[in-house]
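Figure 2 data, in text form.
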Amino acid sequence: MRNKIDLSPNYSKKTRKHKDIKFVIIHYTGMQSEIESIERLKDPKKKVSSHYLINRKGQITMMVNELKTAWHAGKSRWKNFINLNRYSIGIELENKGYEFGYQKFSNIQIKSLIRLCKSLKKKYKIKDDHFLGHSDIAPLRKIDPGEYFPWKKLSKYNLGLWYKEKNQKINFKKSKIRYIFFQNLYKIGYRYFSLKTGTIKKDKKIIKAFQLRFLPKRVTGNIDQKTLKISYNLAKAITS
């Protein structure tokens, strides 16, 4: 299927350098149709856009030139990067989202996404663990691409971080569990929390963002043994 171009006016005019592009951020549209999604991404009043949109049939539409800064990430953080629009390519996947009826992503849609991500990775020398979801970089306000997004499948193509199953039990004092878990998350790249103190509401949102990605069948907002173990193994695997 041939790609389309349907450019949006919603982008920052300054041209980026290749070396500025360090991340790919994946979203879902959260709209009722592809047409409605494209109209929104092109509406100057909405002030939102992405570089690409992939519909459920796998067709890729370019919305913004890669070397321009699209407005898709909003207020966001990952590692030492703030406001990731400046450093990323944004990809929207057509999906009605939680508001209109969250759907499993189609196989051909994910196939097109993998093809596009592999191309972007090679072109901009993007690190394996710099393929992220909107909920990773803005966990207090975003939940997309959600629990149906196949991060494990993408990781087989070195597109995004995943963990190795290990048959170990991790024993820590109950009073230390929150600190150790969030210490692991900080090393992985998550932000918007304090290692020393936190509120239950804020903590739950960040825990859920982590679980949406790495434990999608158990999104509880609680740090159980499995959640802690995954965070521990991911943090140990981080090399940069």
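Caption note: The chain has a mean pLDDT of 95.
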